[in-house]
Structures are given as C-alpha cells and as structure tokens.
Amino acid sequence: MTGLLAVLRKYIGKKNMELISEISKPGRKGYSLPAHDVPKVEISMEFRRKTAAALPEISEPQIMRHFVNLSALNHHIDKDFYPLGSCTMKYNPKINEEAARIPGFAHIHPFQPEETVQGALQLMYECGESLRKIVNLDAITLQPAAGAQGEFTAISMFRAHFNKKSESRTYILVPDSAHGTNPASVNFSGFKPLTLPSNEHGLVNVDKLKELMTYDVAGLMLTNPNTLGLFEKNVKLINDIVHAKGGLIYLDGANMNALLGISQPGMLGFDAVHFNLHKTFSTPHGGGGPGAGPVAVTKTLAPFLPVPIIVKEEKYKLKYDMPDSIGKVQSFYGNFLVIVRAYTFLRMVGEQGLSQISKSAILNANYIIQSLKDDYFLQYPGFCMHEGVLSCKRLKNIGIRTLDVAKRLLDFGMHAPTVYFPLIVSEALMIEPTDSESKETLDRFITVMKRIRKEADENPDILKTAPHNTPVRRMDEVKAIKELKLTWNQ
Ligand SMILES: *Cc1c(COP(=O)(O)O)cnc(C)c1O
Questions:
Q1: Residues lining ligand 1, CB < 6 A?
Q2: Could you read off the pLDDT of 379-397 as tens digits, one per residue?
Q3: Which of 97, 134, 166, 483 would suit a FRET pair with 105, their CA atoms being 20 to 30 Å apart?
Q4: Predicted pLDDT at 2
Q5: Which DSSP helix (H) or strand (E) runs through 193?
Q6: Tens digit of pLDDT for each residue in 354-378?
Q7: What's the mean pLDDT in 334-363?
Q8: Which residue range forms the structural domain that includes residue 453?
Q9: What's the predicted TM-score (pTM) here?
Q10: Which 3 state secondary structure label does DSSP give 74?
Q11: Which residue among 142, 188, 252, 281 is best mutated to probe the pocket of ligand 1, counting the most ligand atoms within 8 A of its Cβ?
C-alpha cells in the first residue's frame, strides 16, 4: 500500500475510522424502493459487466458519517481561521450558494437562445455594472476564469492597443514585490517583464521608474495596496510617469478588499484592473476553482475586450460585433455561477456596506500586526492596509524558520499565513485576517502566535517537528510537487 492510501490509512487508523470498502457488507443498502409494479426485463448479456462493480454496500447513516468525518480532516473556512495572505479567505455566506443553486441559474445551457436566458444576462450585466462602478472605469468583461487570466486578458488588450497604433513596444514593468502571475502574464501576452525595484519603504522606487520608463515599455503592472499590504502613496505620480511616455497602467486588483468604497482605481489613472471575484466577493476557493477574474477598462481599451460583451438594449444581448476584440479567452461566457455568487454578495452588502468591508479588513490586519510586531519583526514599519507581512528572521539564529512557525500553527486548528512571499522580505509571514473575523478570533490567533514565539526559545523541537495534531505530519513539499500522485492506488 503506497502513496495517498497509505497516508490516509495511517490517519484513519489513528482516528479509528475504516475505509469505505471495509465498512461494506454484502446486501446492505443506502436506499429503499417500493416493489416493482412493471414486468422485470433482463438486460442482454452483451451489455452486462463480466464481474460486478466493486462498489461499497453501506447504509445511509454510515455513508453520511464517513464523508462528514473525512471532510473535517482538511482545513476550511467553515472550520476555523484562515489568514492566508494575498488569498482573502473570507467567510462565504451560504445565501450565495442558495442563489447559485436556483434551477433557473444552475440548469440553463450556454447554447440556449438569448431570449430564453434574459434573467441570466441581466444578472451578468448588473454584476458587471456594479463592479465597473466600484472601480470607476468605462467597460468590463466577465469572461476570465481567474485573476491570472484577467491579467493575461488585459495585457493582451495592451498589446492590441499598441498594434492598432502600429507601435511596437517590448517590455512591461513589474515591481519586485509582485505576485508571480504578473511576470507570467507578461510573457504569455508576448511582452517581456522588466523588474522595477522597491525603495527602502517597500514602495515603488519612483526614480528607478523614471529611468526605466521609455518608449520601449508598453506599461506597468501595479498591485495596490502592494503585496506588503502597503498603499502606494505615489500612485498618481507613478501613473503620470507611465502615461507621459504613452504607456498603460494595469492594476492587479487582487487586493481590492482594501479599496472598496474608499478608493477608485479609475480616478487614480489606471487603464485596466482585474477583480478576483472568488477573493473579494466571496466564492469558496480553498480547493482551487472555479473562480472569476473580470477586467474593467477605460474607453480607449474597450474596443479590444474579449467577445461577447453583454449589452442592454430593449433586451439583454450578447454582442459579438467587435472587430478589434482580442477574441475569446474562455469557453462560453466565463464561470457564470461564480458571478451569481458575487452578485448575491454585492446585493446583500449594498452600496453603503462596501466601504465597511474594507474598513474592517484594514482594522483587523493592523490589530494583528501591531499586536505581534515586537514578538516577530516588521521590516516596513507603519500601518498596513488589509494585510501585513511579518518576518521570522530573528528566529533564524535559534534554528527556527518561518515554515516551522507555520506548521506549529496548524496544531492549534488554524490555517497558516502565506509564507516566503513577498520575496523581498526574508522569512516572510504574510497575514490577511479579512473582514469576516471577530475580535475573539483575532485575539486567539495573537495568543497562539505569542505562545509559539515563546516555544521557539524554550522548546524549539516542538516547532521543528510540528505539526503534531493534523491528519498528516510534515510533508515533503518538493517531492509532493515533483512526483504528483493523483490517484489513490499509485
Ligand atoms: C491571487 C492573486 C493573483 C492571481 O489570482 P488567481 O485568481 O489566483 O489567478 C494575482 N495577484 C495577486 C496579488 C494575488 O493575490
């Protein structure tokens, strides 16, 4: 017995749980149906299996308990705190799920004629309009399936814009604190990334920007607040410098949770911005997808949007007649049910509630960072926005690394923060509590973090061998990535 099964087995043994195939008893059933009242028909041998499928035979309560217990082995936001920086793991209200399961949304087909799906188109149109107004830009596409694909979409539109003007430019500037998807999107769109260094305050080095911003640079990808959780105070100046050379500016909007109802990217001079609906507007994303990464743009870039866009005339329509469009970036119209969830969230919060989200997120982050900065280390002092980055570098001389602290946190039932990102902070611990957590939860996290700091001095081995209470102990993360085992019996 190898791989995942062995791992599961180890834990299941510990918890006194059995594999589902082991609970199975011949003839046991999870359903009861009334007796036949129609003649029995034998299926021809030709269509039958040679041997019966090895399906477990168990009762309904057994199957429920089995899967409920399995679901609780992993961490998730409904279980406890999940302060994974940059990822905005906020609580996802269950009303979103109710809306996404309404048959009129869940059971429609993307090939249905427009006139039979007017409600769906209206929802998409209105969701797009709400998002567009939040950032104060002119047009929007809901098609990209994630933030990274939103980046790719927008930078491809930058390319189309310069092609239309018969200008050939080579580079896109990307700050050294940026998320890894930024340089990847630049490459995918046919440009080359050019690294823009940060200054001693963790912000864009404006002098360096002036030097690097030439007519060979198509634009800049800025994250604001940046990945250190710091607001780029010189954002207007930065955008003016790029525009003065005919460049375009992209806002990586993954950190929109800090800006809602407070700051509008369109007013600050951004030409394009993506949203991560699964982050800011609460679609579950702990397990990967599906997500959505709508992109809002200025009038100048609007003709290049992916087709179709949704327009409101007498009826809602899908508009394909856009000769300068970059084409489609995703099958059909994007991840529709994620848009239903985001729309529900937006409507529940209301326009008035938007700024409250960001204010709470900012307050929560500062409460944690200020409470822990003396125990750990804050490389860029001062207040942060919706997330903050501590460092464990002071623990290095006693042989403790950030990874050890992160793993020890798991023993207390909380997910670890993001580690070793952004790259410009050594031994980084990036904490994003989000707006949805209570002060009691924040206090519990702070208490645990202080306790771990004390343990580092008094009992470092407990950190080095952590986690102790999780289904599986410390993983070989390199091996896990290099030798993927995706089935149970490999
Ligand atoms: C999450 C994130 C992205 C990428 O978004 P995905 O939806 O995961 O593709 C890009 N930039 C930043 C700063 C992010 O936090």
A1: 86, 146-148, 179, 181, 223, 227, 252, 254, 276, 291, 293
A2: 999 999 999 999 999 999 9
A3: 134
A4: 47
A5: strand 192-196
A6: 999 999 999 999 999 999 999 999 9
A7: 97
A8: 356-481
A9: 0.91
A10: coil
A11: 252
Residue nearest to atom 3 of ligand 1 (CA): 147
Q: What is the pLDDT of residues 186-209, one digit of tens each?
A: 999 999 999 999 999 999 999 999
Ligand 1 centroid – CA 156 distance (Å): 17
pLDDT band at 487 (very low <50, low <70, confident <90, very high): confident
Q: Closest Cα to atom 5, ligand 1: which residue?
A: 147
Atom of ligand 1 minimally distant from the CA of 227: 13
| Average of per-residue pLDDT across 57-66 | 92
Question: Could you tell which of 276, 285, 431 is best to mutate to test the pocket of ligand 1, judged by most ligand atoms within 8 Å of the CB?
Answer: 276
Same domain flag for 416 and 466: yes
Pair 360, 344 in one domain: no
What is the pLDDT at residue 71?
84
Angstrom CA distances, 155 to 200, 217, 296, 483, stand at 29, 12, 12, 33
- What's the pLDDT at 141? 98
Q: Specify whether 415 is located in the same domain as 274.
A: no
Beta strands in 106-160 (DSSP E): 139-141
Number of domains in the chain: 2
DSSP 45: G
CA of 162 to the centre of ligand 1 (A): 26
Angle formed by the axes of helices 336-372 and 118-135, nearest 10°: 30
Is 81 a domain residue?
A: no
Can you list the pairs that 184-187 forms with residues at least 24 positions away whose Cβ atoms lie under 8 Å? 184/148, 185/148, 185/151, 185/152, 185/155, 185/221, 186/155, 186/221
* Cα 30 to averaged position of ligand 1 atoms, centre (Å): 42
Distance CA 67, CA 10 (A): 17
pLDDT band for position 429 (cuts 50, 70, 90): very high
Atom 7 of ligand 1, nearest CA residue: 147
CA 442 to the chain's CA centroid: 21
Pocket mutation for ligand 1, best pick of 179, 274, 277, 282 (most atoms within 8 Å of C-beta): 179
Is residue 468 included in any domain, yes or no? yes
Integer CA distances (angstroms), 342 to 85, 104, 445, 449, in order: 21, 17, 28, 33
Ligand 1, closest atom to CA 86? 15
- Residue 11: its pLDDT value, please? 59
Q: Which of 298, 319, 348 is the last residue of a domain?
A: 348
Question: Smallest Cα–Cα separation from 80: which of 88, 89, 68?
Answer: 89
Q: Which of 181, 281, 385 to mutate to test the pocket of ligand 1 (most atoms within 8 A of CB)?
A: 181
* Ligand 1 centroid, distance to 144 Cα (angstroms): 12
Q: Provide the pLDDT for residue 481.
A: 85
Which protein residue has the closest C-alpha to ligand 1 atom 14?
Answer: 254
User: Which of the listed residues 315, 330, 348 is the one where a domain comes to its end?
Assistant: 348
